[in-house]
Amino acid sequence: MKDTAEPLEVQRELRDMRNALAAMRDRLESAQAEHEAAVVRAVSDATAEAAQLRATVTALREALERERADRDQMVYAAVSQAHAELVQLKATAATLRANLERTAAAADAALAAARATDRAEIGQLQATIRQLRTQLEAGQQAATTQ
Fold it and tell me: Is the pTM of this model over 0.90?
């Protein structure tokens, strides 16, 4: 019986080992399936994140290009406005210069006319003074002769 018990024991051990091997194989296959699923999820997540990053980069690039275009437009408008203002200031300066020259010429003419009028008045006053002296002297001579 001893010989019979040993092979039964070995057969049981062999069966238990086969069962343990099958269980290990199942666990290994399950672990591999979980690993493959994790890899697929990771690849999917990475792909989604990469797509999201590409979309973000595209949106940022577009925003940057819009900002550059806006800045260029504002610079162009400022330069254009400054140029227009410069032209206007030059025209104003030319007008003011012309007005100043006309005013100065009119003032010089008025001064010359006033001087001429004053000289004429002075001449008339001097003539009147001479005439009055002559009359006074004639009156004094007539009074002395009388």
Answer: no
